[in-house]
Design a protein that fits this description.
- With 256 residues, the chain is α/β, with parallel strands linked by helices.
- Helix content is 29%, strand content 31%.
- The chain starts with a helix and ends with a strand.
């Protein structure tokens, strides 16, 4: 393996609590990463397990495929981020450290006393951090029963008792809720549908927000942020990740 390829692999390593995860390149087998796992555990005594993660997600729960490489065969851990602690199993709930910045930015915009709806809440980071930043009540909806379970644990862990976990399809459950000051829609694969639903449940009057994660395809030379803001009439946009050449996930702040 070339030194350049080795450097690329080292850059793909994430630490989730006491577990390290290596992003597996398309042209590298999991077995080839065992030597990296050994070095990680040697250099970082707090790391008890190392896993590899294949690129992409699958199914309604948007789960990645993981391969255990070394150490404890355990995927549950406590992950600390933005002043909060989250108990999770990254093989059973959607997890991405790429969202860490948005987990802080969006809740930091929450005003005291707001009602927030998080339509696709996962293990609860947007929901819990929104409550800790000042929301009065956060409806936290997810289709994945494991996400529901870990949200229940995490609201206890952070004493975030204003978070109300709801198990089910957000596209249906949201109609049973009161109108919200702010709606978070972190599901770029269904951005247009989520936007149409969120518009019906946000209070509006120019002082409410929808934070929409969108899947944006661009031509060479186009700015994904500008394309997203024009499409959804947003006042701010930020690139969350590049999915592949010309395809991006972009978060758009839309004042309603």
């Amino acid at each position: 393996m070339s030194s350049r390829r080795r450097l690329e692999i080292w850059k793909r390593i994430e630490t989730i609590g006491d577990i390290a995860v290596i992003g597996i390149p398309f042209d590298v087998s999991p077995q080839d990463l065992v030597q990296f796992a050994e070095q990680i555990m040697k250099d970082n005594p707090h790391v008890k397990s190392v896993w590899g993660r294949l690129r992409g997600t699958e199914g309604d729960y948007r789960l990645s495929h993981y391969v255990h490489l070394l150490g404890d065969k355990r995927s549950e851990t406590i992950y600390r981020e933005n002043g909060a602690s989250f108990f999770l199993d990254f093989t059973k709930v959607f997890f991405s450290q790429t969202l860490s910045y948005e987990h802080n930015r969006i809740p930091s915009m929450v005003r005291k006393g707001e009602v927030v709806i998080n339509m696709f809440s996962g293990y609860g980071p947007f929901s819990i951090l929104s409550l800790l930043r000042g929301a009065e009540k956060v409806y936290s909806i997810d289709l994945n029963p494991f996400a529901y379970y870990y949200t229940l644990v995490n609201l206890e862990l952070n004493k975030a008792y204003g978070v109300i976990p709801i198990l089910g399809d957000a596209f249906k459950k949201v109609y049973q809720l009161e109108e919200a000051d702010r709606i978070i829609c972190p599901l770029p694969e269904r951005d247009e549908e989520a936007f149409e639903v969120a518009k019906q449940k946000v209070k509006g009057k120019g002082n409410s927000f929808i934070h929409l994660f969108a899947r944006i395809q661009v031509k060479k030379g186009e700015d994904p942020r500008k394309v997203a803001m024009q499409k959804f009439k947003g006042e701010f946009a930020r690139i969350v990740r590049s999915v592949k050449p010309g395809l991006y996930h972009v978060v758009v702040d839309i004042r309603v």
